[in-house]
Amino acid sequence: MSNITSKNLEIVNQAIDDLWEEELLFLKSIGSFESTLGNEKETQIFIKKHLDDMNLTTTLFSPDPKRLSAYENYGKPEWDYEDRPVLVGEWKSDGEKLGKSLILQGHIDVVSAEPKQLWEEDPFIPTIIDNKMYGRGILDMKGGVAAAIYAVKALQKANIKLGADLLIQTVIEEECTGNGALALLDKGFVADGALIPEPTELRGIHSQLGVMWLRVKVKGSGAHVERAEMAQNAINKSTILIQALEDYRKHINAQPKHPDFTHHSHPLNVNVGVGYGGDWPSSVPNEYTFEARVGFYPGTDPSDVQEEVKQWLLKASEQDDWLKENPPEITFFGFHALGYTISKDSELFNRIASAHKKTTNEEMESLAFTATTDLRAFGEFGIPATCYGPSGANMHAPNEYIDLDSLKTVTKTIAAFILDWCKENN
Fold first, then answer.
1. Parallel/antiparallel/unpaired status of strands 270-277 and 401-403
2. pLDDT category, 211, cuts 50, 70, 90?
3. Could you tell me if 180 and 81 lie in one domain?
4. What pLDDT shows up at residue 1?
5. Strand 270-277 and strand 287-296: pairing?
6. Of residues 389, 209, 359, 412, the one with CA closest to residue 294
7. Are residues 197 and 260 located together in one domain of the fold?
8. Containing domain of residue 158, as a range?
9. Final residue before a domain boundary, out of 303, 337, 371
10. Is the C or the N end of the chain the one with fewer CB within 10 Å?
């Protein structure tokens, strides 16, 4: 049963309204940091100061990949973790434990904003136009981070004392490995439940896909373009394998669907996102490399998908005389992410749905998500978790924006959920 009184909720919601301009300034501030892979530290230091000012007990440290490598969801990095911290701020309950402890977690890493010339505004000077804030990472997911922090700040402003511990976590590498989330949980910063305010358009995620990354290096036989008929163009040969991945995408979507995704016409995406090779227009390239992302259903072992994709590409190579004798080099890195599910009948899911209804007077919709989030890390630790967050558009694309009305709604829903889950210590 819900523990939120109308009086408490009214006081907290008024505090959120009073703090609204400050929340927007905070979001603009963290949105101004270009916190792409390897450049997250300044953002984390800024947020740490904010949490310190809220009298939370903060801990900042860099992940240790050797320590994390035993976890199922560990993603193999090709970069180091020096000066790339994760952050947690703890709000300890002083009295008797009346409710359940909670983690509010968000990632502060963002994808590249290139090509920046396609943006109507500078992607790292967040701009508000027609009640939308534009900027790289503003929707995915610095807006959710702001909502989580200001929900807690509003509770403090309303002099609410919680009946259980609350942790605010900001992590790195949600966009590529998930090792940031694993690092905090591995260090013992755990709880009875978790919420990630990813941009879900005010829906609760009950299922999400697994994801893995691969790299394919294709060898050619270079020459001056004048003798191109005697050479083997690595770029041209790579198109055979890129087409093979397109055929693989069609193949896996033609198979029986996971029950959570039967409503979706095309749940499994295969995307070639990076390609590089060659160094001169008049030279036949010796090598070409491309990198791709492959999605798969919950309950599937990423290692099995890796082997299936590898064999699919090698079989396609056998159809070409050159590739048959010079097969591609196929390696895997980054995401090794399992799928994740949570029952829509679970206590945590129902309490978030209840908080949503108290805020919006509408029933919360559920979402089977065709990508991945850090939810899977909580699944590996046996912590019930879901995502619920704001609306907007153009994630991973030019002119990304967040709808500010939805951001305020999410802030109020998170605050209501905290009151219900952690309970109030009078």
1. unpaired
2. very high
3. yes
4. 44
5. antiparallel
6. 209
7. no
8. 6-208+340-422
9. 337
10. N
